[in-house]
Amino acid sequence: MAALWIWLAIAVICVIAEVLTVNLIFFMIAAGAVVGALADVVGVSGPLQILIAAVVAAAGLLLVRPVLMRRFLPANPASATNVDALIGKLALTAETVTDTAGTATINGETWSARVPVAAESIPAAQRARIVRIDGVYLILSANPNEGGAP
Q1: What is the tens place of the pLDDT at every residue in 55-79?
Q2: Is 96 left (phi over 0), alpha (psi -120 to 50) or beta?
Q3: In this structure, which topology does domain 82-141 adopt according to CATH?
Q4: Of 2, 35, 78, 120, which is most buried with the most CB atoms under 10 A?
């Protein structure tokens, strides 16, 4: 009967961890622990309880969790946020942008900007497409029609 309390403690700890992580991994382990506790109640031996709990947890992780994750996760990936949301947008060059110098403005903020090719430059007061962000630099395309929608 002492094993019952150990199984229930494992289940409670896993449920608390699941609430903090919300990824359904600890929930499946908690389900295995609950089944292990039920096995103890009906008189199954200790090693067999562990085996039963492990099988239930593994089945939950391999079979049930993927179905639940598809069901509860949105069909579309999350929208780009923070600086990733700037990629593909148009910036206005504040000064000539080369591969070593330049600035551009987007959303009222001035960023250091560069072009990806040394032979290329973008004159001041031109629109340029943000193709990526490299650290603190906007990497701009000289062709505003390249790299996405405005």
Answers
A1: 999 999 999 999 998 888 766 655 6
A2: beta
A3: OB fold (Dihydrolipoamide Acetyltransferase, E2P) (2.40.50)
A4: 35
Q: Which residues, other chains included, contact 143 with Cβ-Cβ below 8 Å and sequence gap of 6+?
A: 129
CB of 86 closer than 8 Å to CB of 138? yes
Please list, residue by residue across 110-123, b when 16 or more beta carbons sit within 10 angstroms of its beta carbon and e when fewer do: ebebbbeeeeebbe
**Is the per-residue pLDDT at 92 higher than 90?**
yes
Q: What is the 8-class DSSP label of residue 86?
A: G
In terms of residues, how long is the chain? 150
C-alpha span between 100 and 112 (Å, rounded):
10
CA distance 24 to 69: 8
What is the dihedral angle through the alpha carbons of 102, 106, 108, 110, rounded to the nearest 10 degrees? -20
Query: Is it the case that residue 110 has pLDDT exceeding 50?
Result: yes
Residue span(s) of the chain under CATH 2.40.50.140 come to 82-141
From the list 66, 65, 42, 68, the residue with the least C-alpha distance to 7 is 42
